[in-house]
Amino acid sequence: GGYDEAFALVGEDEDLSRRLGYAGGKLLYIPSAEVLHFQRDTIKTWADNMFVYGKGRVWLIRRHPQAFSLVFLLPVLALLFLPVYLLCILLYSLQLLVRRREVKKLWRVSALYVCTHLPYALGMIYGLFVRGDTPEAIARSKTPKLFLMVFH
């Protein structure tokens, strides 16, 4: 019962919800409920947060394979096909901003997509090698320390 400490920074709520559901518990949707999320102040802290979400997604899929969706692989595919991804992001951003008559924001909006998807993908790759955010989990990892220094 309760939150699993292996999910110290991310995914603990989804993990608990899934385990409660598997145990026969009922999860309620309450439309009037409010949740406060703090947005990141800088593009770097935003990207760092996306990295954390990416590794958490892998940990959740490992624990709950039925939660897997092909959509989760899109950021990793973007890494593999980076030029195609960048062109698609640029064209999509342009189309969106032309419709809103805000073309001046093209580079900022495009950069935000990149700073969301690429750190998320790198976090997913990191999450394949390290199983948890606790110091113990990182110490147990068989991941080369250089990889941990670069991606953590």
From TrEMBL:
Key words of the record: Membrane, Transmembrane, Transmembrane helix
Cleavable signal peptide: none
Transmembrane segments: 67-94, 106-129
InterPro entries associated with the record: Nucleotide-diphossugar_trans
UniProt keyword annotation of Membrane present: yes
Protein name, entry field: Glycosyltransferase 2-like domain-containing protein
Species, as recorded: marine sediment metagenome
